[in-house]
Amino acid sequence: MSAVKQDDKRKVTVHRLKEMKDRGEKITMLTSYDYTMASIVDGAGIDAILVGDSASNVMCGNQTTLPISLDQMIYHGKAVAHATKRALVVVDMPFGYCVGNPLQSLDAAVRIMKETGADALKIEGGEELAPDIKKIIDAGIPVIGHLGLMPQSINKYGTYTVRAQENAEAEKLKRDALLLQEIGCSAIVLEKIPAALATEVTQSLRIPTIGIGAGSGTDGQVLVIHDMLGMNQGFSPRFLRRYANLHAVMTEAITQYITDVKEVTFPNKEEEY
Ligand code: KIV
Fold first, then answer.
1. Residue 246: how many CB atoms within 10 A of its CB?
2. Which of 34, 121, 119 has the alpha carbon at shortest distance from 76?
3. Which protein residue's CA is at the shortest distance from atom 3 of ligand 1?
4. pTM for the complete prediction?
5. At what angle do helices 70-83 and 35-43 cross, to 10 degrees?
6. Which atom of ligand 1 is nearest the CA belonging to 189?
7. What does the alpha-carbon distance between residue 96 and residue 173 come to, in Å, rounded to a whole number?
8. Whether the CB of 112 sits within 6 Å of ligand 1
């Protein structure tokens, strides 16, 4: 595998994700939902930023991704695209806008692309949504598919457990992945499926796969930034590696500020005009 090119400042496109797969270089993706976070993530050299509909949980405190609206996704997407110089910016199609009516799906896709300045969309779903996804791709919009655990279908599943453990669901996932490639998807996110299945799917495709809870055999990895930075304490799935404990760091800073203000040690003479 080739080394990471830290000095490569070229804008990442969906074509470059494919080139990375072809040369065996892993693709890195993290979520962001606002300007400041996206500036940091992009500046650190990430390949792709996902404006996920996980914003519904992380930014708005909802239990699921279902409530977030198209306007809210556009608000977050615009802030992230504004901040990002190098990474590929991918915005999630929110629940309810791409559900079996290709022209309506295209309208939502065009609004996201026009109003955010993003580079691509991500859409949950396989065969059932193929006509919608194809319509969007045919209009010139790169689409990243999303298979396995699809959080927008939580009410159908009833649980966030690992998907495609049974043969029938695994076979459907493999067919869906090939179909998404055939209709022109640029990559596929594989969420919370057995590692062996994710590896098999990855090896069967020309387009890259990006995994979350899908083992190391995918072409890339994605995590929710607030989870990997340890900002949110209540979420500890097995696949999550925490790279920092920002909850503790932020709590300590804020309690110190409270103490300083109460004790009138902030501001001091050097901090006043
Ligand atoms: O919305 C999101 O953050 C996602 C990732 C978990 C892949 O879809």
1. 17
2. 34
3. 52
4. 0.96
5. 40
6. 7
7. 21
8. no
C-alpha separations of 235 from 42, 46, 59, 107, 164 in Å: 25, 23, 15, 35, 22
State the distance between the two ends of the chain, measured CA to CA, in whole angstroms: 56
Nearest to 204 by CA among 181, 172, 170, 185: 181
Q: What are phi and psi of 10, to 5 degrees?
A: -65, 145
Q: In angstroms, what is the span from residue 97 Cα to ligand 1's centroid?
A: 17
Residue in 132, 214, 206, 212 with CA at minimum distance from that of residue 170: 214
* 8-state DSSP, 162: P
d(CA 98, CA 189) in angstroms, rounded, equals: 17
pLDDT in tens, 136-193: 999 999 999 999 999 999 999 999 999 999 999 999 999 999 999 999 999 999 999 9
Alpha helices in the chain (DSSP H): 14-23, 35-43, 55-58, 70-83, 102-116, 130-138, 154-157, 167-182, 195-204, 225-228, 246-262
